[in-house]
Amino acid sequence: MNDLPPDLPRLRTLETWLAMTLERVRQQITAAERQQGEERRPPPPDWVLELGIGVGAPPAEVHAGDCYAIGRRQRPITREQALDALSEGVRACVHCRPDTALGVL
Question: Is 17 in a helix, a strand, or coil?
């Protein structure tokens, strides 16, 4: 039993439709995989200490965890560590203003 049309024009139409449908399915798979990967990613830390350049260099800045200006040399810190760093003179980021968010100002 053959459930496909017998003529070439309808077969070509069916082929085009199947190719378009397959592409849509692949796009949906890619989107689902991307979303699943994002779900596995841990949430950003609440506070981040940007480290200075070189061994033993003092910390550079304190940032909120979602700040776009955080440099590559960083480590997550707790609220208490952020408060301690600011009280010890580590500069607060001028973009995310962690000092304001922490109630230091």
Answer: helix
Q: What separation in angstroms does the CA of 55 have from each of 10, 26, 52, 100? A: 71, 48, 8, 30
- Do the beta carbons of residue 5 and residue 12 sit within 8 Å? no
Q: What is the pTM of this model?
A: 0.62
51 and 36 assigned to the same domain? no
Q: pLDDT digit string (tens) for 20-53?
A: 999 999 999 999 988 887 777 788 899 999 999 9
User: 66 falls in which pLDDT band (50, 70, 90)?
Assistant: very high
Count up the domains in the chain and report the number: 2
Same domain, 22 and 36: yes
Range of the domain at 23: 7-41
